[in-house]
Specification:
about 0% strand, 2 strands, mainly alpha, about 300 residues, about 75% helix
Length: about 300
């Protein structure tokens, strides 16, 4: 018994030692800054003065006085509503294509995943800006086919956000790999039974493939909604929120309040409002999963 107890303590110590780097990073880089941010959100603080406690004034200001806050929130909601379905649909479509056996399959999977590796970088955002700019490839091709545009897609408030959404959809690789992994877990016996019953491809997809993928769709949906609300690089680099704030994302506005206007207290309040919004959406999706997510273990 003593030997077992000693080995158990050794195992526990070893576990905590291996976990220590993560714990230090979590406490030092996330937990402590989070509590500091919460405190600052209830203060008037501009990085130069001593924080002055103002209660819920920053939160009241956001919802009652700040029109730009409403604009940034609206733009972000539109971005998420457009991006998430399109990215998931496209990722699932490509995953189903790559799930079939054909030559150079490994190469195709790698190529399709590359945009997700480099898609959020500053360099790619600059390239995207050049492609859709006044003298970019898109404008040049349109002029060659006789379609003259006075302003680029990025210069038009009605189309600028669509370009940002398109770049987000282009970064579908991670969702595609998750879908591809889930497709491989669907038993072939289900498809064989469907073939025997004379089920067509469309009917098989909606009756077998899609229900079996609902847990993966649920997982991807949560991730993509969170990532969508956190969009920053594309909006900042490609359009800087313009034209006419048509691509002003919430995080970009938060960044401006903090590091352009040095309104750190208000910026922290905006950050926690965003956390609350993401939490609400996450809870709603979790609460509704019983209505549309099929778990094989529960169906037995």
């Amino acid at each position: 018994m003593k030997n077992k107890s000693m080995f158990k303590r050794v195992d526990n110590v070893t576990g905590y030692v291996l976990l220590a780097p993560w714990l230090v990073g979590f406490v030092g880089m996330w937990l402590i800054p989070a509590f500091i941010s919460i405190y600052y959100s209830f203060t008037n603080f501009n990085l130069l003065n001593t924080p002055e406690f103002v209660g819920f004034a920053n939160y009241v200001r956001a919802f009652t006085q700040d029109k730009t806050f409403v604009k940034a929130l609206t733009v972000t909601f539109l971005y998420v509503l457009a991006l998430v379905p399109l990215r998931l649909i496209f990722a699932l479509f490509v995953a189903m294509l790559l799930n079939k056996k054909h030559k150079c399959l490994g190469l195709y999977r790698t190529l399709y995943y590359v945009p997700s590796i480099i898609g959020g970088s500053i360099a790619v955002s600059i390239v995207w800006k050049q492609i859709f700019g006044n003298k970019g490839v898109v404008m040049t091709l349109l002029s060659l086919v006789g379609i003259e545009q006075k302003t680029s897609f990025l210069g038009n408030p009605k189309t600028a956000l669509a370009v940002i959404v398109l770049m987000g959809v282009w970064q579908f690789g991670s969702s595609m790999l998750i879908f591809l992994s889930a497709l491989k877990q669907i038993p072939n016996s289900l498809y064989e039974s469907a073939m025997v019953d004379g089920s067509g491809q469309v009917n098989t997809f909606f009756k077998i493939t899609l229900p079996m993928l609902t847990p993966t769709i649920f997982f991807n949906l949560i991730l993509q909604i969170i990532n969508g609300f956190r969009v920053f690089t594309e909006s900042y680099v490609i359009t800087d929120g313009g034209p006419l704030d048509s691509t002003l994302s919430y995080v970009l506005y938060l960044y401006r309040r903090a590091f352009t206007y040095f309104d750190m207290g208000y910026s922290c309040a905006l950050a926690w409002i965003l956390v609350a919004i993401i939490a609400v959406f996450t809870v709603i999706i979790f609460k509704t999963q019983n209505n549309w997510v099929y778990y094989e273990s529960e169906g037995k």
